[in-house]
Amino acid sequence: MLRRARATQCLRVGVRLLHVANLHAVLGVSPGSSRDAVRKRYYDLAMQLHPDMSGGAEGGAASHEAFVELHAAFEQLMRETPTAAASQAAPTAASTAARGGGAGPWARQSAASAKPFEPRRATLAEVLVRRLDDEPASLDEVWAELAARRLPISPSAADSLFRACSRARGAGGMAAALHLLREADALGTLDSRPSALCSLLSWCKEDGALRTSRDE
Fold first, then answer.
1. Which of 43, 63, 50 is nearest to 152 (CA)?
2. 56-60, 189-193, 201-205, range with the lowest pLDDT
3. Burial of 186 (0-12, 13-18, 19+ CB in 10 A)
4. What whole-number distance in Å separates Cα of residue 134 and Cα of residue 130?
5. Contact, 160 vs 110, CB < 8 A?
6. How confident is the model at residue 128 (pLDDT cuts 50, 70, 90)?
7. Backbone phi, then psi, for 123, in 5-degree steps?
8. CB 211 within 8 A of CB 175
9. Domains of the chain (ranges, CATH numbers)
10. Distance between CA atoms of 49 and 115, rounded to whole angstroms?
11. Which residue stretches of 33-171 are H helix?
């Protein structure tokens, strides 16, 4: 019985290691890669494999499946390799809740991150702006990609951009958000100008409320 239990445990470990190795293979990174390296590789590949970058129905269908596989591997790999900071944050969050503490600045989620992400339906712009949830300081880099490729900016993508402007003080705050709106409007990439304006006003209001609370 003991030998059988050990054999079963070894088999499970082996399957687990093979599974993780396959995830890394899909992304083309080594098992020892950092989360930042995995994330960077994912966004690089997304710009190559996403259907928005494929011409023709046949190429688009094949690219769609490749992107869905890429995204699934990325999501699973990121879940299975938590950061040390995330591990330390759990007890901190619990103690904060016990004290009745709130969620803090920028508690409101962007429209893109507030709903479940569906890779089969997401545009490339909506994929790229998700990077801002973890790296708001990458705003300039993300926007440069969106502008250079003239990708359509959906209302949810615009909302994520404005939220990142509000969070990344070094990027110019809401003045930068207004600049992005004007650039997107000039490029003709806004899916809905009224929706983008409403989103910008909402974040400006929240940003002003945060400034007031800090001054007090």
1. 50
2. 56-60
3. exposed
4. 8
5. yes
6. very high
7. -75, 165
8. no
9. 1-83 (1.10.287), 108-216 (1.25.40)
10. 23
11. 35-49, 57-80, 84-98, 111-114, 124-129, 131-134, 139-148, 155-167
Q: 204 Cβ partners below 8 Å, 6+ apart?
A: 174, 177
Which whole-number Å values give the CA distances from 41 to 69, 73, 182, 205, in the listed order? 14, 12, 30, 35
> What digits encode the pLDDT tens for the residues 15-27?
343 455 688 888 8
Share of the chain above pLDDT 70, in %: 62
Res 93 pLDDT > 50: no
* Rounded-to-10 torsion of CA 48, 56, 51, 63: -70
Q: Is 109 helix (H, G, I), strand (E, B) or coil?
A: coil
Q: Which single residue is written with the structure tokens 């269908």?
A: 61
**Cα–Cα dist 76/91, whole Å:** 23
Q: Which of 45-49, 86-90, 154-158, 188-192 has the lowest mean pLDDT?
A: 86-90
| Stated pTM of the model | 0.70
> Is pLDDT at 78 greater than 60 in this prediction?
yes
Residue whose structure tokens are 């890669």: 33
